[in-house]
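Quick one, probably user error.
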């Protein structure tokens, strides 16, 4: 699997330079990272790079979760569709809806088309915190989303997921996570430190912190598994 575009375009050109503003972020000033990638070309490079970086963990997640019996998946902040593609390939009866910014749509539709899944994966333009989510979903996925929003809004996203899901629906949260004592892992900590440069109020996600918020939002049967060792984990839960 080729990761060159991920490191050349997204990491080197778009994400790593934000660390130059770390001192500003620690003082409470926000770097408007997303404004930098709203132009069609920058958005395309970001999305193509993220696609190459997400395919690996997407296939791992697809192998970790059993979506048998699920017909609908809502992929919130799903970007290029890497996770939707992997999950739909594994579950032939599954149809997915990606919700993300309009600038991402051309790349997402290109990637979905190349995967031969245009008839099963659709794209809805919008902001995860503002646009109404489709209801009646059997599963909701948020990958790398909670680490990109202010901690105070995590509960809001979880409530939106709860309202979107059918009874017994599956919640899947894939993201960078620290250990509960916040002593590591170091690579996950570096990723979350970078997130601080984009939003100083972002949560330092840990299994315990996130599980508590998920339960408060009304979910149960919470479990956590590792996806990328020392970097990301997957929280699974059910709507009652």
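Nope, works fine. Designed sequence:
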């Amino acid at each position: 699997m080729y990761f060159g575009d991920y490191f050349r375009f997204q990491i080197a050109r778009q994400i790593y330079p934000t660390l130059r503003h770390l001192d500003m972020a620690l003082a409470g000033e926000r770097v408007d990272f997303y404004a930098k990638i709203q132009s069609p070309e920058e958005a395309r490079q970001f999305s193509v790079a993220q696609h190459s970086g997400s395919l690996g963990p997407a296939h791992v997640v697809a192998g970790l979760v059993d979506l048998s019996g699920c017909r609908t998946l809502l992929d919130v902040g799903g970007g290029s569709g890497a996770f939707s593609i992997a999950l739909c390939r594994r579950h032939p009866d599954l149809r997915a809806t990606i919700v993300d910014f309009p600038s991402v749509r051309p790349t997402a539709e290109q990637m979905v088309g190349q995967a031969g899944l245009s008839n099963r994966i659709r794209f809805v333009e919008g902001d995860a915190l503002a646009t109404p989510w489709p209801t009646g979903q059997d599963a909701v996925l948020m990958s790398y989303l909670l680490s990109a929003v202010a901690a105070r809004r995590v509960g809001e996203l979880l409530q939106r997921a709860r309202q979107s899901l059918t009874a017994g629906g599956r919640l899947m949260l894939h993201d960078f996570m620290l250990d509960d004592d916040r002593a590591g892992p170091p690579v996950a900590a570096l990723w979350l430190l970078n997130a601080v440069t984009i939003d100083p109020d972002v949560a330092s996600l840990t299994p315990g912190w996130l599980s508590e918020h998920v339960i408060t939002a009304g979910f149960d049967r919470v479990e956590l598994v590792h996806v990328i060792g020392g970097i990301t984990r997957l929280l699974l839960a059910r709507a009652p």
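Residues 40-64 form the longest helix (25 residues).
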